[in-house]
Amino acid sequence: MTRHVDLRSDTVTQPTPEMREAMARAVVGDDGFGDDPTVRELEERFATLLGKEAAIFVPSGVMANQIALRVLTRPGDVIVAGRHQHVVSFEMGASARNSSVQFALVDDASGELAIEDVMDLIDAATDHQVPVAMVAVENTHMFSGGMVWNHDRLSALAHAMGGRPLHLDGARLFNAAVSSGRTPSELAAPATTVMACLSKGLCAPVGSLLAGPASLMANGRIERKRLGGAMRQVGILAAAGLVALDTMVDRLAQDHARARRLAELLSAAFPESGVDPTTVQTNIVSFNHPQARQIVHELKERGVWGGTVAPRRVRFVTHADVDDDDLDFVADVLSSFTADR
Ligand SMILES: Cc1ncc(COP(=O)(O)O)c(C=O)c1O
Questions:
Q1: Region 104-108: what's the mean pLDDT?
Q2: 157 with 118: CB under 8 angstroms?
Q3: Fewer CB near the last or first residue (10 Å), C or N of the chain?
């Protein structure tokens, strides 16, 4: 097979040898009875790390988001969210199907929701519009190119919401922490519930966690069961998750540095795309281009794998299985691609 560099997503990462070792050695039990010590350790570690009372280990980030909505809403409720957030646009309508909720959408091109936009929707209850039950945000925000929320603005939004719950989709919360220099618990503080994925930049093979108040997480365990996400000797996966938290967080800085270099290469190859390497904060480089699908197709033929997240939006993601040598290869491919255009 000819060489390729896979920049489609940080979900393509392989578990590390230390993870495989820990998985083989994991002490396990039936988590349905609460008997798996490795799962309990991971849930407690995560809850503490995020400054929340409790946490639940779940198979995927989507399930963590879906459980959050199930415990925070009732059928018919309205959730304010950004129009490009994962829970809105990338979960196959799961929120409507699982929780019978609807979204009131605001612009999130910058990765953030403007406080005035959210407050307008909340105030619209006075004008006979359906009351807003909660708000959902994403940090880092995938679609905008892994942007990190400004912490003061997120805290201000949480304060302005009149006691309504805030759910934080932190699929890449640890990227946000490394990039901003803030602790995960600082980033989680404004939110009622927070999810984070172990299976993206942190390289665990499977698993996400949802954290929040103990009473909500007790309900969350019931919702996890309803969704078919209660598992048995799942300490085998939690063991890899513990290694992920112990060994893989600080190295995210390397992914961020490589994403900046990748942005420089892409900006040179596609000057019309407006890619600005100085705005890259984490591990995602995304830009609009009229020939997005064509570019992704042609680069793939040459061994550089990326993807589109909308008809005219290209995305490349750096991760632990991409090194500097791989980026040299990407640089060569982009120069020959440009020369042939
Ligand atoms: C921002 C965000 N939230 C949630 C998810 C869902 O995670 P999973 O693929 O583990 O279901 C993703 C996955 O890419 C994501 O990028």
A1: 98
A2: yes
A3: N
